[in-house]
Design goal:
This protein is an alpha/beta fold. It is 36% helix and 16% strand. It has nine helices and 14 strands. It has a seven-stranded mixed β-sheet, sandwiched between helices. Helix 3 packs parallel to helix 4. The mean pLDDT is 97. Bound molecules: 4'-deoxy-4'-aminopyridoxal-5'-phosphate. The site of 4'-deoxy-4'-aminopyridoxal-5'-phosphate has 11 residues, from helix 3.
């Protein structure tokens, strides 16, 4: 079977060049005498891979020395708890901007830890857009402001960072990290599960401004303390060595495509191919308002659920996989992460036009 057009929301498509490199190195990592999965996480060969991956992330994002790059486990979901456990102190409030399903989960966990203020929400509009700056009601001395740069389920994305008047900005960038240029210096903490734009599942990248990590609360478990992982360079316990190795290969692949500027232009072209189809017809209804449209997850509906099912069946028959919307919202969703080729987006756009012609 040939490789299909993979629109999965995550785990998702990886660059074929990266998969081929993994295959070439799998049985014997050059210089290692064994596969990367079989060697000690404290070996010289692995250490070089670990450092290289960190260096590439730093380079792509232009991180200053104030930031540390960590590789953790437990998914972005564990970060919903670790962020407040580390950054929200007794008597402080954390501001959250709510624009979709993942933000809801982040807020639920933060509330278990401390005081949360909902500084903006678009829930009453079915999360069809992000919040406008004028709607955001910040707590003046908040511990941090948290937002989700791309809501994977609803397909809405922030086009610019919210302004926080000096309060540290924390972002769940799980579904758009390294997909476009980012002004990293604006952030206190960036976290993302790897399985959409960076690599396989099982690694979470956390980028944190070290000065935000004050005294560790006495009862904070060692593994949940960012400082544990900063001090040990993410080698306190055994990290996902195989995943970190692949993230390094993906970062190099992005670099070869012109870094974040280059990959950002490509991602924009892919998204435009699909939004053009949505805009030129009344057959498809996009979920997101145009100004908040995600370049990563294009969410849309057809005239009926029956037609949506037929669309999915025919798309699958045409080797376009992973187009069902999230189970919470239904409809259709095309995920267009970094590694999805432009030809796949164009193939889907052509299929959408042809399907509407036949069934309109
Ligand atoms: N945040 C966002 C924006 C996501 O898209 C996802 C995964 N779909 C998560 C958090 C949860 O990630 P994980 O499964 O790695 O815990």
């Amino acid at each position: 079977m040939a490789r299909v057009h993979n629109f999965n929301a995550g785990p998702a498509v990886l660059p074929v060049e990266v998969l081929q490199q993994v295959q070439a190195d799998l049985v014997e990592m050059p210089g290692g005498g064994m596969s990367i999965m079989e060697m000690s996480h404290r070996s010289q060969t692995y250490e070089a891979v670990h450092e290289q991956t960190i260096a590439l992330i730093r380079e792509l994002l232009g991180l200053s020395d104030a930031y540390k790059v960590l590789f953790l486990q437990g998914g972005a979901s564990l970060q919903f708890s670790m962020v407040p456990l580390n950054l929200l102190r007794e008597g402080q409030t954390a501001d959250y901007l709510l624009t979709g399903g993942w933000g809801q989960k982040a807020i639920k966990e933060a509330k278990k830890v401390g005081k949360v203020h909902l500084a903006a929400s678009t829930e009453s509009e079915n999360f069809a857009r992000v919040a406008a700056q004028e709607e955001i009601q910040l707590t003046p001395d908040a511990a941090y402001v948290h937002f989700t740069s791309n809501e994977t389920i609803q397909g809405v994305q922030w086009m610019a960072e919210p302004e926080t008047n000096g309060v540290p900005l924390v972002v769940d960038a799980s579904s758009d990290i390294l997909s476009r240029p980012l002004d990293a210096g604006k952030y206190g903490l960036i976290y993302a599960g790897a399985q959409k734009n960076l690599g396989p599942s099982g690694v979470t990248v956390v980028i944190v401004r070290e000065d935000l990590l004050g005294d560790t609360p006495a009862n904070l478990p060692t593994m949940l303390d960012y400082k544990t992982h900063v001090k040990t360079n993410s080698l306190y316990n055994t990290p996902n060595t195989f995943g970190i190795y692949i993230i390094g290969l993906v970062c190099r692949w992005i670099q070869q495509r012109g870094g974040l500027e280059g990959i950002g232009r490509l991602n924009e072209q892919k998204a435009r191919a699909l939004y053009d189809v949505i805009d030129e017809s009344t057959y498809y209804r996009g979920h997101a308002q145009p100004s908040s449209r995600s370049r990563m997850n294009v969410t849309f509906r057809l005239p009926s659920e029956e037609l949506e099912k037929q669309f999915l069946r025919e798309a699958t028959a045409n080797e376009m996989i992973g187009l069902a919307g999230h189970r919470d919202v239904g409809g259709l969703r095309a995920s267009l992460y970094n590694a999805l080729p432009l030809e796949s987006a164009r193939a889907l756009a052509d299929f959408m036009r042809e399907f509407a012609r036949r069934n309109g």
